[in-house]
Every structure is written in C-alpha cells, then in structure tokens.
Amino acid sequence: MMDLRSESTPPDVVETPATIDSVESVADTEAILLPLEPEPRPPMLMRAVYPFGLSLRGWRRILVSGIFLLLAIAFLVRVQAILPPFIIAFLLAALLDPTVRYLERHGRPRVQAVLTLYVLGMLIVILVAALVVPAATRQIEELSANAHNYYESFNTTVDAWMAHNKSLLKFFGVNETKLTTLFSHKPVLFQNRITDALNTVTGVVQGVASQAIWLIIVPVATFFFLRDYTELRARVIALFPVRLHTEIDEVSRGIVDVFSAYIQGLTKICSLFAAVIFLTMTVLGHKYALFLGLMAGAFYVIPLLGPWIVAITAGLLAYSEPHRALFFIQVPANSFAFAVIVGLTIFAAQMVFDQLLYPRVVGGSVGLHPVVSIFALLSGATLFGIVGMILAVPVAASIQILLTYFFPKLAHPPPAQLMKEPPPLA
User: I want to staple 169 with a disulfide (CB 3.0 to 4.6 A). Which of 24, 105, 174, 412 is the partner?
Assistant: First the structure.
C-alpha cells in the first residue's frame, strides 16, 4: 500500500509548530499593513446655526439677562427718590476704604477699624458743635439782623460815589447816578442773576433740611457698606472674565485710592485756608472773622468764583462796621481803604494757596506734578466749568493710572545717561 503523504511531501520539508507560527506572524503583519476599511458612521445630525455663532442656550441667556436688566432699571426709576442717600453712603465707603485698609495693615480687624473711624468722626463733630457752631450762629444771626442797615449804608455810599464820578461812568457807558436805578435798567445783568443765585442757595438749603432722615440713613448704610466693601467689590469684579480679574482689581483700587487721597487733601487745604482767613481777619480786627473763615473754607472748592465771593463779602462787611485793626488801631465805619485792604488780603491768601500749597498738598497726594495739577484745573474749567475744576485733579490722576498701566515705561525712571549734565562747551 503506497503512502500518499510521503509522495506529496518532499522528504526535506518537515512541518513544525515554529513554521506554522511564522506563517501566522506574516499574515498578521500583512493584515496590519493593509489599509483598513472605514467603519460605517451613523448619519450626522444638522446643527442649527444662530446669528453671531451663538447657540440657542446663549441667546436664551442674553434674552433673560436683558429682561432682568430692563426690570431692574424700571424699578430703580420708580424708587429714585430714595436712592441718593444709599449712593452717597457707597461713595463714602469707597473713599474711606483706603484708610480702613491702612488700619488693617497695622493689626486692627476691619470692624474695629471702621468703628475707630466712626469714633474719631464723632469726636470731631462734637468739638465743632461745641466750639464753632455757637459763635458762628451768633455772627450769622447778627448779620441777618443788621442786613438792612448794611444795605442802606452801602447804597448811600455808592450813590454818592456815582454822583461824584458821572464822567467816569459815562466813559464806560453807564448813565445812571444811583445804584437802584442801575439795577432797574440792567435786570438781566443784575437782578436775574442775583435772584437765580439766591433761589439756588435757598433750594439747596431747603432740600438738605427736608431730608433730615438722611442723617440716619447715610451713617448706618456707610457702616455696612464699609464693613462689607471688600466682599462687595470682589463680587462686582467676579462678574467679568477671569483673565481680567487681576487687571480690574489693580486699576480700580488705584483709581479709588486716588479719589480718596484727593478728598483728604482737599479737606486739609480747605480747613487750613479757613483757619488762615480766620486768623488774618482776627488780626485785622474784623467783627465777623469766624464767619468769613468758615465761608472761605467752604467756597475754596469753587475756583475763580469762590475768592471773589469771599473777598467782596468781607470788604462790604468791613466797610459797614467800625473795627480795631491790629488790636489797637481804631478803624471807623465807612472806611473804603480798610475794605480794600481786607479784600486784597483775602485775594493774596488765595493766590498763595492756589500757586504753592494746593498743587503740593492736593496734587501731591494724588501723585500729580504741580504743573499738571494747574493744567488740569484750567482744562476742567474750560470744558465743564466749576464742576470740571472741582473734579479735574482726581480725573487727571485716574488718567495717569490708566496710562501707566497700558504704557509701563511711563512709570519707570528715565535712563541714567540721559540725566547726566552735558560737558561744558570749550
């Protein structure tokens, strides 16, 4: 019987397990190298495309936020009568926060630092109420009682001067010889402006007096705003994208610190000016020295117009009453020379403060060069009048903070080689 396997298989070829494994390995390698057939994918769903690339959820969020914002604005408009004391309280908290942080850095807890400020403020109010208010009240009452006599005396003197200087007045286009006639012929220039000014002052006084409840709301709300100011500020900053938190925190803190330093500096300069005018008028023997000092401190925040108001008022009062100048020189009433001296003294003090002290105390407290402070004041007056002058310095300092943030080289000192003096010419 013939063996078929021996005939079909050469004698030198032997099937071994290793041969079989190698064949399987080659097959696997070829299978790996061959391109794989792509698996069938499920059919894609078409996504809805909305304007500006936003999704439906994004547009819903914008719609809900817009509705909420409109409702909030409508609510605030409805209750706008009660908003001012809370706005004032929040601004006071922002302005006092740098001082509270200063006390915190020296080891005081925030609540204790706030209470310290309140105690100091209470002591100042008590001292002013005990020492200044009674004397100022007596002088104001005396002024009110003698206002008619002062007016008649001034009117008589001016009428006599106008009658004596007819030719000079005609040269300037004034044909009247009496002050009352001049007022009646120039109603727009005199009467309307005086009436408007008096109505404005009366309206402000009546408005403040009618809001006596503010004296309770503002201190209480300021305390709670100041206590939680750090958290409130952090919540507002958290509304912005995370990548902007650090920048917003630094810039906003710098701007708030600038406004706080400005208010503190302005308070110092107004208090110092009031004290200087009070002492100067006391030396000159002015009967209403305290009243003029308080008036000068209050009107110092009104540039250009403030010194004119104080100087004219002081001169008119000096003209209407007898005085004892330098504690031993008797000055009679209706002394035109003494009235001029009083007015020029106030103008001189104003010039010294404006040119020397104000740029250094107020401008230096906010980090502005004195020349920049003066330029800012004049620019604010040109653009926005009295309000622009009052806010010119802190706004300029805020602009300086933004410029140094966006252009850091502005905050760096100049290169040393540029600061060297050039060699003298041969």
Answer: 174
